[in-house]
Amino acid sequence: MLKNITLDRPLAVLDLETTGTDTKIDRIVEVSVLKILPGGECDHRTRRVNPGVPIPPEATAVHGITDDDVADCPTFRAIAPGLARFLDGCDLGGFNILKYDLRLLAAEYNRAGLDFPVAGRKVIDACHIFHKREPRDLTAAYRFYCGLEHEGAHGAAADVLATLAILDAQVARYDDLPTTIDGLHAHCSDPTALDMSGMFGKDEDGVIVFVKGKYKGRTLEQVAGDKPDYLDWMLKADFFDDTKAIASQALRRAG
């Protein structure tokens, strides 16, 4: 399976599907590990997990896994010892594994009261290599879309001109991109978000809920009633004005 990489010991390439993107609070709903031995033998195992919390609709929209799909699946605590044994002695690989998968895996093991050792392992992150080799900055975008070198990079005036040229070239390059500002705004925004910060959305019943942050999944009215100090903090923090307006209205209703 590997044609260009030499293995001295087993490599386990892993990927997680989860309830969200917050590595501190979100939970695993599926784990897949492809274990490759130095001799070339492979063992690919995938297991769904009952996260013990509802899977948000926005997460299901990404990976297609619903609450019903995992209702009869084991918890992470149940599979944790076996997974640790399967990964024992393996180096680890993944896409964005350093910033995401490993952090979430460590959090799940911590909740299960177990250790997941990473010391001594080699970790290969394809996302890190991708971003390092193919930079995703303004200079790289100008070169890619416009075929020009960005002279005066990081000077505000030159960056503005380059950005405008890139936007125009992107619309020309991709037939499915809108040609209007309204259309491009919709393309760049989360259609389910109620505010520019993406803090609030609506559940299936049309009730405003937090879609990220420490109260993710809770309704705005619940937080306004139980934790008004959190909304007070939001009004003083660096959220956009539309986010603050929603929080302020909820506080007034709760008061």
CA radius of gyration is 23 Å
Strand order within the widest beta sheet: 3-2-1-4-5
Strand element count: 7
What structural class should be given to the helix and strand makeup? alpha/beta
Secondary-structure element pattern, one letter each = EEEHHHEHEHHHHEEHHH
CATH fold category name of the largest domain: Nucleotidyltransferase, domain 5
Task: Explain what this protein looks like in three dimensions.
The protein is an alpha/beta fold and 255 residues long. It folds into three domains: 11-130, Ribonuclease H-like superfamily/Ribonuclease H (Nucleotidyltransferase, domain 5, 2-Layer Sandwich); 138-188, no CATH class; 200-254, no CATH class. 44% of the residues lie in helices and 15% in strands. It contains eleven helices and seven strands. It has helices at residues 57-63, 67-70, 76-87, 97-111, 126-133, 138-146, 156-173, 181-188, 220-226, 228-236, 241-254; strands at 11-18, 28-36, 42-48, 91-94, 123-125, 200-202, 208-210. The strands form two sheets. A five-stranded mixed beta sheet has the order 3-2-1-4-5. A two-stranded antiparallel sheet has the order 6-7. Pfam families: ExoX-like_C, RNase_T. Residues 10-176 form the Exonuclease domain.
Name its key features:
255 residues, alpha/beta, Nucleotidyltransferase, domain 5, 3 domains, 5-stranded mixed sheet, 11 helices, 44% helix, 15% strand, flat
